[in-house]
Amino acid sequence: MRLYQGFRSLILTIFRKILFLWVRTDVSGNSAETLGLDPEKPVCYVLQYSSLSSRLVLEQEVIRAHLPGASEALPVKNGPAHSFFFLYRRIGGLFSGGRQTPVPTNEFQALVRYGLEHPEQDVQIVPVSLFWGRSPDKEKSLVKLLLSDTWSVAGRLQKFLIIMVHGRNTYVQFNQPLSLKQVIDEYRHSEERANRKLARLLRTHFRRVRQAVLGPDLSHRRTLVEGLVRTQAVKEAIRETAAKDDIPPEKVRGKAYKYADEIAASMSIVTIRFLEVVLSWLWNRIYNGIAVNNIQEVKEVAQDNAVVYVPCHRSHIDYLLLSYVLYKNGLMPPHIAAGINLNMPIVGPILRRGGAFFMRRSFRDNPLYATVFNEYMHVMFSRGYSVEYFIEGGRSRTGRMLQPRPGMLSMTVRSFLRDHRKPIVFVPVYFGYEKVMEGRSYLGELRGKKKQKESVFGLAKTVRKLTNSFGRVAVNFGDAIPLAQVLDTVHDSWRDEAYDAEYRPAWLTDAVDVLAQRVAANINASVAVNPIGMTATVLLGTERLAMDEGQLIRLMDQYARLLTTFPYAETVTLPEGSGKDWIAYCESMGLITRQPQKLGDIIALEGSNAILMTYYRNNIQHLFALPSLIASLFENKDSLRRDKIVFLTSVAYPYLQSELFLKYSMEEIDGIINQWIDVLVDLGLLTTLEDDRIGRPEEGTEAMLRLRILSRFIIQTLERYHIALGILRKYGSGKISASELEEQSTLLAERMSILFGLNAPEFFDKSLFRNFIANMQKNGVITTDENGLISYGEGLEEVAEDARLVLSVEKRQAIQQVTMMGA
């Protein structure tokens, strides 16, 4: 028997070596740490379908990853002869179709029987999913369809051909183990029921993984486009447009077809595989690596939900990067909402086949187009496709999250209300670039330069940058947001109402607003802190954008301790190394300069880099917002009562929360502020005094320097608020409209930026003033009369006086001078 087993093992080894002369694999989850394996318990692997090739691939990957062996007997007394088993056994001969039956295999039954007979021992069952290629391309020939790994099961001859065609694009996914003991514990007296339970769990698991990896079956694009025009909503829009514009219905129907054809994606797995190769080359050329964090949560929610990926929008690279990361991690790339400006020659067709569907910037005054687009989105969601869109609308030129636009979110909510059989989950995504590719062009646009229209020639110019190094990039996935959960908080009886394509319930706007704020907050709660952002934050907090290297290193290390002592969120990632490493890295990236000096080198920001670095500071500004706000209260006060600190900080918080998308609710903010006060005391930035007072360090000490620079992380935001308040008070109650206040504030902020050398482009961003004014109205600080003029009471005067605490005498005088000029 031993001789037979040895000979059989040798034959299988030879087959495995031959197979891997051709096969190339991409593997996920193949480490004991990722799987969370207990080294004290035996491991048994399970594959879905009985197949020699699958067994050989499993054995090869287990050996490569130094995981417990799969071919040896399970290392338990009287256990099964192998450390793997197949869930389904094959019925039929060599050349027959490979129909599978849910009847458990002998190995499966042996493992369950062993578990029942030895209740004191446990076995870790690791499901392993294997895909020869990733999905069918249904717009190609029947031959290609036949040789694609799909939801159907291939026979032996078909499997051989599939391996020959797709073997070099094989994907293997190891998944979290099941505990045999836990699964069958309740059925100790019924082997049949124990078998059924374990089989059901494994069958469900493999189905969910297959759904996540392959996605829903792809429909023929032409059929989809024709189907959109035949929907009831589009038919009604055609009739209304024909009657309104006095155009024959057939002509309007042709226009609707053109709209649908302009919008619809044409996802092609051939194109996706081609893009994978091209993008792998591209990322290796321009980046020093891609860090992916919290991808496991995405894999889990993708198995049972239609996923909407909602990333921040920093670069045109975002589109490609997310699809690439998902595909490399075994998930189907999403259908991506792209601006119609990207539907240019050459590039547009490639993007469309990569999953992009195109949308016009505005649907206003074109109800026919709006209806066609709405119906297309409804098809995507109701069929379970994953979708990606940017809630900011456009790319952020300042490095901050932009205010969310409600359009796509509203479409998603309305589609879900019409048909909520398939749950929808939003997955926030944060892109953390150490050096954004469009950085220099953003600088030009912020200085008033006209935005360049996308074109093939512009793309050709960009190709020249591919020899540059743009550092590392992080793709962080945030905590998922189930849409049904959000709707429950806004309108808990939403399931009991009937909805059609045109119905907009009265509470829809509130639901979309809550959803938008939560998505934006979760994106910011997934921020990737990198050396560039840390260096930019500290250097921009100095008076002259320069500092002694040793002192700068100490400050950076101490501010990094703030982020580790009181973490903002579990999904935030921090850079490796220390301040010294970060300075060296920024210098190698050409973003800071070093001025040698005998008493110690000076590190400085110069020229356009000083403005460019505000972009990277703004990426992480929200993490320091609360401690910086607390620190700013001590600009003109030696000490304050703790309750006064909490009150002043909580008054300013709603405005910072709206602008920076902070995650804390108003109900919990007092407790968070008190925690931050304790952290600042523990780290020596503040001190405790008698009578529940909090004091600042002595002037001239390094602790006071740390506190003062910390306050400057947020001070320009507070100065901007003070400008708006100063203008409003100068004009008086009932004397100026919201639009006039916005305009005056923007002009004076721009003037102040020039006069006092403020190098933050967002300082005079009109949209930020608009948001601040809207929030004052929302919080009841101001009201508008029937003529649109702003009125206010004593409450605003008190807020304005308290706000003076955070500004230096020089700044107060400067703002007062500027506001007097403006008035």
TrEMBL record:
Topological relation to the membrane, as annotated: Peripheral membrane protein
Record's protein name: Glycerol-3-phosphate acyltransferase
GO cellular component: plasma membrane
Locus of motif HXXXXD motif: 312-317
InterPro entries: GPAT/DHAPAT, GPAT/DHAPAT_C, GPAT/DHAPAT_LPLAT, GPAT_PlsB, Plipid/glycerol_acylTrfase
GO biological process, one term: CDP-diacylglycerol biosynthetic process
Record remark on domains: The HXXXXD motif is essential for acyltransferase activity and may constitute the binding site for the phosphate moiety of the glycerol-3-phosphate.
Catalytic activity: sn-glycerol 3-phosphate + an acyl-CoA = a 1-acyl-sn-glycero-3-phosphate + CoA
Keyword annotations: Acyltransferase, Cell membrane, Lipid biosynthesis, Lipid metabolism, Membrane, Phospholipid biosynthesis, Phospholipid metabolism, Transferase
Subcellular location: Cell membrane
Pathway participation: Phospholipid metabolism; CDP-diacylglycerol biosynthesis; CDP-diacylglycerol from sn-glycerol 3-phosphate: step 1/3; Lipid metabolism
Coiled-coil residue spans: none
